[in-house]
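Progress report, Aim 2. The chain analyzed during this reporting quarter is listed below.
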Amino acid sequence: MKGIRFAVLSLACAAVPLAGVTRYVAPNGAHVSPYTSWATAARSIQPAINLSAGGDEVVVSNGVYISSVYIYTYSNITVRSLNGPQVTVIDGSNNHLCVFLSNASNAVFEGFTLRNGRGGAYAGGAYLLRGGLLRNCIVRQCFATNGAGVFIDLGGGLESCTIEQNTGWYGGGVHLWYAPSALVSNCVIRNNVALEGGGGVFCRYGGTVAHCTITNNVALYGLAFFGTGGGVLTYYGGTVSNCVLSGNYAHSGGGVYCMYGGLVQHCMIRANHADSGWTSSSDGGGVGLNLGTVIGCAITGNYAHGHAGGVLSYGLGDVRDSIICGNTASNWGGGAYISYGGSFSNCVIGANRAASGGGAATVVQTGRTGMFLNCVITGNLAHALAASGGGLYLYGLNMVSDSLIAFNTASGTNSAEGGGISDYAYTTASRYISVLRCTINGNVATGHYAYGGGVQLRYGAIDRCVVSSNLAAGVTAYGGGLACGSPGAEAISSLIVCNAARGTAVANGGGVYNANTGLVVNCTICDNSAAGSASGANGGGVFTTLGVPRNCIVYFNSSPSNANVRAMNGCLNTCATPLQGGVGNLADDPDLASRAAGNYRLLASSPCIDKGTNMPWMAAAKDLDGNPRLYDGRVDMGAYEYVPEPCALAMACSTVVLVLRLRAVVLQTVPPGGPFRTTLTSQQGGVR
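Predicted C-alpha cells for the chain:
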C-alpha cells in the first residue's frame, strides 16, 4: 500500500511543472547569491543571469547599469525591468555593446533603455544571434557599422520597441542579417542615420517588418548601396507589411528601396524624399524597386529631386492595387518612373506633378517592357518649358491597356505634347508604344505650340480606344484628340469624338492631326472642332498631310475650313462630306445610333456597312465592342462592326431553348397541382 501511495505521489509531482526561479537586481541590493529576494538582490544584471536556467526570470529595479549584458543559453530565460524603460537603463558608455543574446532562442529581454552602445562591426545597442526577443525597449544613440541600434543575425525579433537616433553604415536603426524568420513588429523606428543604406531598417536576405512606424530616418549617399532606402532597404528579400513610412530621406527610395527583391504590402508611404543634396539623379521619393513588389499601398505626397516622385521601377518592379497620388518629381514621372522595365496594375495614379510624365514616365531600355494595366491615371500635370505627357510620357517598349486616362494636363511655356499620353519614340527601333482598349477623356495640352490634347503619337499605336473631350490649345494647336507626328503612328478601330483644337493663330485637326504617313484606319471621328483665325483653322475632324484615312467615318465635325477632312492625298473607303477624292468613299449620312447619347454604332440602315477594305491584320482583329472585325466577311467603316439581330429561325430556336429551361425550373419549384404564374420581361436587344 505504501509503495502504491508513493508511486501516485510521484506521478502527481511529475505532472506539475516546477516554477522557475526569480532573481532580483537593484543598484542598492546586498548582492548575496542566489539573489532570490530584493533584500539580497544583485547590484548588476550579469551575475543574476549567470545563475539562471530555463524558466527563470530576472527582475531589474530602477537605475543606470553600465556593464554589458550577455545571455548565452538555449532556454526560455526572461530578463525584465520592474518599472519600464524610462527608469531602467543599460548604458554602453560609447565603448561597448549594451546587450548580447546568443543562441537564446526563447529568451526575452524586456523593458529597458539601451543607450550609448558602441559595437564596432555589428550592433551598438543589442545583438541577437540565432534567436531571442527584445520587447518594450528603447534603443537610442548607439553606433556600429551594421545595425547601429539592433543587429539580428540568423534569427530573433523586436516587439513594441522604439529605435531612435542611432548611426551606422548599413541599417542605422535595425539590421536583419540572413534572418528570414526574424520579425520586427509594432515598433517605432525614427531619426536614425545610415551612411550607406537602410536608414531605419536594412533587411539583408529576408526578414519581416510589420505594423511599424518608420519615420524621419536618413540614408546618405555612399559607395556600396548609394544611399538607398531612407526608411527601409531590402536586399535579396525582405517584407515590409502594414507599416507607416513617412518623412524619410535618401538618395533613392526615400521611403523604401527593394534591391534585387523584396515585398512591400499594405503600407502608407507618405512625405518621403529622394534628394542627395548634390546630384540631380535622386529618384524614387516614396519607393524604389529593383525586382521588388508593391501590393495594396498608398504612396502619397513624396518628392524626388530627379525622377519618380512616387515609385521608381529601376528593374522589373511590380506595383499592384495601389494608390499613387500627390507626388512630385523635378524631372520625369511625378507618380512613377520605369527605367529597366516594370508594371503597374489596378492602380490609381492621380494628382502627381513633374516636368514630363506628370502621372508616370518611362524610358524603357532595349529588351525590357513598361506596362500600365487596368489603371486610372487622372488629374496629373506635366509643366515645363517643353512639357510632355500630362498623364503618361512613354519611350521604348510600352503597353497601356484597359485604363482610364482622364483630366490630365501638359502645360508648356513653349510647347506641350500629349495632355493624356505622349509617345516620345523617334524610330521603329525604339518603339513600340501600344495603347489598347483605353478611355482617354478630358485631357489638355496647352502651350505656345500644343500637340495632341488626348494623345501625341510618334511610333506608337492606339487600338480600340475612346478618345473624347480632349483639348489642344495655344497660339498654334494641332490634334485636339490625337496628333500623329511620324510615319509609325497608328490609330486603329478607335472612337475619336468631341475633341477640340483651339489656336489663336493656327488650329489644325480637331479630332486628328496627322503630319506624316501615319495610319488612321477604321476610326469613327465625329463632333470634333478646330477653331482659330478664319484662315488658320482647318480640318475639324481630320487634318493630314501625307497619311490617307482608310475605312473611317469622319462626320458632324466643325471648322472654318474643311469642317470634316483636310487630306492632301485623299481618303480610301471613308464616309465624309463633302465626298473625298480617292477610292470607295461615301458622302451619305452614316446613320449612327444616337450621337446625343454617345452611341456612335451603326444602325441597320447605315450605308457604311460592308463598305470598308479588308486588310491582312483584320482576320484576327476585334472592333471597339470586341466583335470580330470581319463579322460577315467584309469590314465596315468606322470603329464598330454592325452586328445584326439573329435571323427568325435562330430566334425561334432560342425561344424553344428558353421555354424548355423555364419548364425545367417550374417542375423543380412548383409542387404537383400547385398554382403557376410567371411574367417574362424582355431586355433591350431581344434574345441573342
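The radius of gyration is 35 Å. Confidence is low (pLDDT under 50) at residues 1-17, 645-688. These observations will guide the mutagenesis work planned for the next reporting period.
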